[in-house]
Amino acid sequence: MEFHQKHLLDIEHLSEAEIVAVLDTAESMAEISTREVKKVPTLRGKTIINLFFEASTRTRSSFELAAKRLSADIINFSQANSSAVKGESLRDTVLNLEAMNPDALVIRHASSGAAHYLTTFCRSHVVNAGDGSHEHPTQALLDAFTIRQEKKNFKGLRVVIAGDILHSRVARSNIFCLQKLGARVVLCGPPTLLPMEFTSFGPEVIYDFDRALEGADVVMMLRIQMERMQKNFFPSLREYRNLYCLTAQRFKLAKKSAIIMHPGPMNRGVEISAEVADSAKSVILKQVENGVSVRMAVLYLLLGGKEREAAD
Length: 312
Ligand code: CP
Description:
The protein is of the alpha/beta class. It is 38% helix and 14% strand. The protein contains twelve helices and nine strands. It has helices at 16-32, 58-69, 90-98, 114-119, 137-151, 169-180, 209-213, 237-244, 248-251, 274-277, 284-302, 305-311; strands at residues 47-52, 73-78, 104-109, 125-131, 158-162, 184-188, 204-205, 218-221, 259-261. It has a five-stranded parallel beta sheet with strand order 7-6-5-8-9. Helix 2 links the parallel strand 1 and strand 2. It is globular and about 55 Å long. The chain binds phosphoric acid mono(formamide)ester. Phosphoric acid mono(formamide)ester binds at residues 56-59, 130, 139, 263-265. Phosphoric acid mono(formamide)ester binds next to helix 2.
């Protein structure tokens, strides 16, 4: 099994073999969550700090559950209840928390590059839980894990990622991840939220949603990130919905076997209809379930779980 990283900062710099190593490890981890006693001693004595400077429902709780299922100690830091509100800098906040000797820091921050910045002065392992509009590597890994569960193989799969691509760290991580694994990625969204520069990463860009959906194996919808918009990117939500909402009618253009994904949180009735989100073709809650296994795998691989098991 090939995984030799100290940190998990992005997907861009992982090899295909390293991605597959995380997915294979996550498969073993998934079994632990089905047991009556959902706990193994692998990371006993290790300490992890969840550093969330932005809101989160899924990522923060699944990192916490992942750590606890591996018997690591974890504490949650949230900006709103910290001395950051008194003006303490990111560097000082992190240096003070590191003085308590954690082994890993999981960070979510509104600034692209925040996770990488920590590695310039921290000794702990750093895991990027989403930095600005840069990357969200564990989201892409859990998405790939879910696609592999459903489709078995990535080679030749047509994956359509649609919505607010410009502001999406999920889209960027998925573009790198899915292409490394052999899938064909098609990006779709209004031109203001999908600059042609994205073709330089390899995907095809199609602005017409109906045309993009034709023959799709996987349709991954993204939410409009109003909180990152400084100006109007489209005339109205009504127009956006007309052109880019995944409805049951539109979804018929994809393959019969196609699946529907969304990283959450969803804006029901904007980028995805409630009917589609709750349909039998939707694997959205499966993605959330798989998030725990994938984050267990990431913590296990970074914190030397394999070496500890071998030593025992
Ligand atoms: N997908 C995702 O990152 O969700 P949260 O913002 O709830 O963590």
